TrEMBL record:
<feature type="transmembrane region" description="Helical">
    <location>
        <begin position="12"/>
        <end position="30"/>
    </location>
</feature>
<feature type="transmembrane region" description="Helical">
    <location>
        <begin position="351"/>
        <end position="369"/>
    </location>
</feature>
<feature type="transmembrane region" description="Helical">
    <location>
        <begin position="375"/>
        <end position="397"/>
    </location>
</feature>
<dbReference type="GO" id="GO:0022857">
    <property type="term" value="F:transmembrane transporter activity"/>
</dbReference>
<dbReference type="Pfam" id="PF07690">
    <property type="entry name" value="MFS_1"/>
</dbReference>
<dbReference type="InterPro" id="IPR020846">
    <property type="entry name" value="MFS_dom"/>
</dbReference>
<dbReference type="GO" id="GO:0005886">
    <property type="term" value="C:plasma membrane"/>
</dbReference>
<dbReference type="InterPro" id="IPR036259">
    <property type="entry name" value="MFS_trans_sf"/>
</dbReference>
<keyword id="KW-1133">Transmembrane helix</keyword>
<dbReference type="InterPro" id="IPR011701">
    <property type="entry name" value="MFS"/>
</dbReference>
<keyword id="KW-0812">Transmembrane</keyword>
<feature type="transmembrane region" description="Helical">
    <location>
        <begin position="134"/>
        <end position="152"/>
    </location>
</feature>
<feature type="transmembrane region" description="Helical">
    <location>
        <begin position="307"/>
        <end position="330"/>
    </location>
</feature>
<feature type="transmembrane region" description="Helical">
    <location>
        <begin position="207"/>
        <end position="230"/>
    </location>
</feature>
<feature type="transmembrane region" description="Helical">
    <location>
        <begin position="42"/>
        <end position="60"/>
    </location>
</feature>
<feature type="transmembrane region" description="Helical">
    <location>
        <begin position="72"/>
        <end position="92"/>
    </location>
</feature>
<feature type="transmembrane region" description="Helical">
    <location>
        <begin position="282"/>
        <end position="301"/>
    </location>
</feature>
């Protein structure tokens, strides 16, 4: 792409970052649309827009077109990605969400692995090249969108109740109403809440802020790692584009290791939830906190041409496995802690996470050039080391921290009230 569009390396990197910028910012506006129109229409409309911009990138004549298309495509793609958590919450009760959320997390993180794996070999084919990476993705996504259109039904309970009430009014002539119709507010007000509440939670809630910093850092390093893999393996081990793509299998393996650990985490959650509450979600996250810096140190100090490349692969695999555990813990813990405000809390951490993913790749090349591979990754390792206390503080002091929070205290009081009523 840099060759065909006469672009600089930095311009190409901006194209990578623009996607995550759209992913982070736009859901603040679009999240409220599902309250008004339901989830299924948003999946379909955003999916159609997402598909269209593959064409724009594939036919681009300059790198500026690619940047704009990536930003808008990320914006469309973000709608579906941020609604998955809501759809899961529509279908499963809190105690049953562990496996569905783990499957969603697996698909999200595996994409970072199998995308470059496939794209590397497409790029190696002289008859295809980078433009066909876009066309092939478009074909795959078009099939997916067709399956969504055929099989996905509406899951948003308020929208379903309004449809039932409307149908009853038409059939009986009586003034049936869903409760939400009396309590409904304007779309403008919903958009205002969805834009402001996530930022408010991010800035004022200690739980949201600390977890957002942790997952944001790890997510930013993940994108730096994605960008650095090509540089490291080409420079140190003379890998071609196809072989570099094969390295990304380690991300698939790491994701599956993290996914398998979730079964043990679910076992611990069910065992200790009666005594520990939402903090029972954090057992594996406390272990993963140690593996993040360990993985970065391995990746850093295997960055020598005389060290076998398998050492680098081990570091990547461990990092992604730990990243998976942290990613899943953040989603599950915030959902448990904030109940009806969970979507806002998750939107806040998503904003922080994707802004980090936007910013980090912009300085990756310069950082690796100036600090060398080993010292740049060592710096990341020390930063990850400094963040180890985050899950432990929440694990031991989470209830008292939440008790001082305006939002999570309401959820805590509602849970205590429900427990007393059952007694």
């Amino acid at each position: 792409m840099t060759r065909d569009l006469s672009a600089t390396q930095f311009q190409a990197t901006v194209g990578l970052s623009m996607y995550t910028l759209g992913f982070g910012v736009v859901p603040l506006v679009t999240a409220s649309f599902s309250e008004e129109f339901g989830r299924r229409p948003l999946y379909l409309v955003s999916g159609l827009g997402f598909a269209i911009f593959y064409v724009m990138i594939a036919e681009a004549k300059n790198v500026q077109t690619v940047m704009v298309a990536r930003l808008i495509q990320g914006s469309f793609g973000s709608t579906a990605a941020t609604m998955v958590g809501g759809t899961i919450a529509d279908i499963w009760a809190p105690a049953e969400r562990g496996l569905p959320m783990a499957i969603f997390s697996l698909s999200a993180l595996c994409g970072n692995g199998y995308g470059p794996l496939i794209a590397g070999w497409i790029e190696m084919n002289s008859r295809l090249g980078w433009r066909w990476i876009q066309w092939i993705q478009l074909i795959i996504f078009a099939v997916t969108l067709l399956l969504v259109f055929i099989f996905l039904e509406e899951t948003r309970s308020t929208v379903l109740l309004m449809r039932i009430a409307k149908k009853l009014r038409e059939e009986t002539g009586r003034s049936y109403k869903a409760r939400i119709e009396d309590e409904s507010v304007s779309l403008k007000h919903l958009i205002w809440i969805s834009c402001t509440r996530p930022i408010r939670l991010l800035l004022t809630e200690h739980v949201v802020l600390s977890f957002s910093l942790w997952i944001g850092f790890a997510w930013g390093v993940t994108y730096c790692m994605i960008q650095s893999i090509g540089m490291v393996f080409r420079t140190l081990h003379d890998f071609n584009d196809g072989q570099v793509g094969l390295v990304f299998i380690s991300m698939l393996v790491g994701s599956f290791i993290g996914f398998c650990s979730n079964f043990y985490q679910e076992y611990l959650y069910k065992m200790y939830y009666p005594t520990r509450g939402p903090e029972a979600r954090l057992y594996c996250a406390c272990v993963a906190a140690f593996f993040l810096p360990i993985a970065m140190f391995i990746y850093a100090w295997c960055s020598f041409s005389h060290v076998h490349w398998i050492g680098l692969v081990v570091g990547i695999t461990l990092f992604v496995a730990a990243m998976f555990v942290v990613y899943l813990a953040v989603f599950s813990y915030l959902a448990d802690c904030y109940g009806p405000y969970a979507s806002s809390a998750l939107a806040g951490q998503s904003l922080a996470r994707n802004i980090m993913a936007t910013v980090f790749p912009l300085f990756t090349t310069q950082m690796y050039t100036n600090l060398t591979f080993k010292w740049a990754n060592t710096l990341f390792g020390f930063l990850a080391l400094a963040m180890i206390p985050i899950p432990f503080v929440l694990f031991f002091y989470g209830p008292s921290i939440r008790q001082r929070s305006k939002f999570s205290r309401r959820v805590l009081e509602a849970q205590q009230k429900a427990s007393l009523e059952k007694m």
